[in-house]
Specification:
- The chain is an alpha+beta fold.
- It has eleven helices and ten strands.
- The protein has a five-stranded antiparallel β-sheet. Strands 8-10-9 form a three-stranded antiparallel β-sheet, with helices on one face. A two-stranded antiparallel sheet has the order 1-2.
- Helix 6 crosses helix 8 and helix 10 runs antiparallel to helix 11.
Length: 353
C-alpha cells in the first residue's frame, strides 16, 4: 500500500490524513498561543516598568495568569475542528472548551482584583494602616462573588438547572442577611470608609457632642481618642449615619474677634482702631486679613469686629497666632491710651429734701 493509500485509510470515521492535519493544527495552535503569551507578558512588563503605568502592570499580571492547561485545551479544541466526530464527542469537546474558558476568565478576574487591591493596599500601608484589614475583606468578598458566578456558569453549561439553586441561595442569603444585618451594615460601612475616605487615621473629628482624633478604622468599629484621654468607640454604620465635622481636612481657620472699648474713647482713636488692628494682624505669618470694623454700640462698650484667616489647620499654631495678636493689641492700646471696656453701671442719686 503506497503512502497516498495509507493517508486515505479511515480510522473512527476520519482518514489518517485528516487525523494528521488535526494534530498539526493542534501543535501549531498550542505553540502559537504559548509564544504569544510569553512575548506579550514580557512586552507588557517592560512597558509597565519603563512608563510606570498601572494599567500596563495590571495587564501583564492578567496575561501571566493564563494557564498552560487552558492553552492546551484551546489548541486541542481548534485541532479537533477538522475531525468528524460523533455528536456526543463533539458536544463534550464544546463543553470542555467553554468550561475551560469560564475557569480561565475567573482566574483573570481574580488576578485583576488581587493586583488592584494589593496596589491600593501598599498605598494605604503608609497613609492609613488601619484600613488594610477592611481591604482584605473587600478582596475576599469580590473573589467569593467571582467564583460563585463561575460555579453557576459551569453548572449551567453541564446542563444542570440552576434556577432552583439560585432561588435557594437567594432565600438563604436573605435569611443570613437578616440575622447578621448589623454586622453586615458595619462591614459595608467599613468598606465605604475605605473607598470614599470621609476621614483617615489622624483626622480630628467632631461627632455630635464627642470630639477626638481617629486612631483606628476597623471592620466593625472606628476608635477615636478624645481630648480628655479616653477612647471613644463608634459603630461604623452609626458613625456614617451621623453628622461628622472633619477638622483634619480644614486647610485654613476663620477667626472672628470682637473687642470692646469704653464710651469715653475719642473719635480720633475710634478711627485709628481698624487700621491699627489690620497692621497687627498682617504682621503675623500664615495669616490673611479680611476686615475690621466698628460694628455696634453695646450695653457698656463700643464693639469692633475683626475677621482674619489662619492658613493652617493646626490648633496650637492658631492659638499661638491668636495670643500674639492679643498681646500686640493690648500693648498698642496701652500706648495710645485706649481703654478696654468691661461691665459697669452708673448710678444717679437724686437727693430730695
Amino acid at each position: 500500500m503506497n503512502p497516498l493509500e495509507w493517508a486515505q485509510y479511515e480510522v473512527l470515521g476520519n482518514s489518517l490524513l485528516v487525523w494528521g492535519l488535526g494534530v498539526v493544527l493542534f501543535v501549531l495552535a498550542w505553540a502559537a498561543l504559548a509564544i504569544t503569551r510569553r512575548v506579550l507578558s514580557k512586552r507588557l512588563r517592560a512597558l509597565a516598568e519603563h512608563r510606570h503605568i498601572v494599567a500596563l502592570d495590571l495587564a501583564s499580571h492578567v496575561v501571566d495568569a493564563t494557564k498552560g492547561l487552558f492553552l492546551f485545551l484551546i489548541a486541542a479544541f481548534l485541532g479537533s475542528r477538522v475531525w468528524e466526530l460523533p455528536a456526543d464527542w463533539d458536544t463534550g469537546l464544546d463543553r470542555v472548551a467553554i468550561i475551560a474558558f469560564i475557569i480561565q476568565a475567573g482566574l483573570w478576574l481574580t488576578t485583576a482584583t488581587l493586583v488592584s487591591i494589593e496596589a491600593k493596599r501598599e498605598e494605604e500601608l503608609t497613609d492609613n494602616r488601619s484600613v488594610v484589614a477592611a481591604m482584605d475583606i473587600l478582596s475576599f468578598v469580590i473573589r467569593l462573588a467571582i467564583w460563585a458566578f463561575v460555579l453557576l456558569l459551569i453548572l449551567d453549561n453541564l446542563g444542570i438547572n440552576i434556577t432552583a439553586l439560585v432561588a435557594g441561595l437567594g432565600v438563604g442569603g436573605i435569611a443570613v442577611a437578616l440575622a447578621a444585618q448589623n454586622i453586615l451594615g458595619d462591614l459595608f460601612a467599613s468598606l465605604s470608609i475605605v473607598l470614599d475616605k470621609p476621614f483617615v487615621v489622624g483626622d480630628f473629628l467632631s461627632v455630635g457632642e464627642h470630639v477626638g482624633n481617629v486612631e483606628k478604622v476597623g471592620i466593625k468599629t472606628t476608635r477615636l481618642r478624645s481630648l480628655s484621654g479616653e477612647e471613644l468607640v463608634f459603630s461604623n454604620n452609626d458613625l456614617l449615619s451621623s453628622r461628622i465635622r472633619n477638622y483634619g481636612r480644614m486647610y485654613e481657620r476663620r477667626v472672628l474677634m470682637s473687642i470692646g472699648v469704653t464710651y469715653q474713647t475719642s473719635v480720633e482713636h475710634l478711627k485709628k482702631i481698624p487700621a491699627m488692628i489690620k497692621e497687627i494682624v498682617e504682621s503675623e505669618d500664615d495669616v490673611r486679613f479680611d476686615r475690621s470694623h466698628f460694628k455696634t454700640y453695646g450695653d457698656f462698650a463700643l464693639v469692633f469686629e475683626t475677621v482674619y484667616y489662619v492658613l493652617s489647620s493646626d490648633y496650637n499654631h492658631y492659638m499661638d497666632i491668636q495670643q500674639s495678636i492679643n498681646l500686640q493689641i493690648f500693648e498698642q492700646f496701652g500706648k495710645e491710651g485706649i481703654e478696654f471696656a468691661y461691665p459697669t453701671q452708673t448710678v444717679f442719686l437724686n437727693k430730695t429734701e
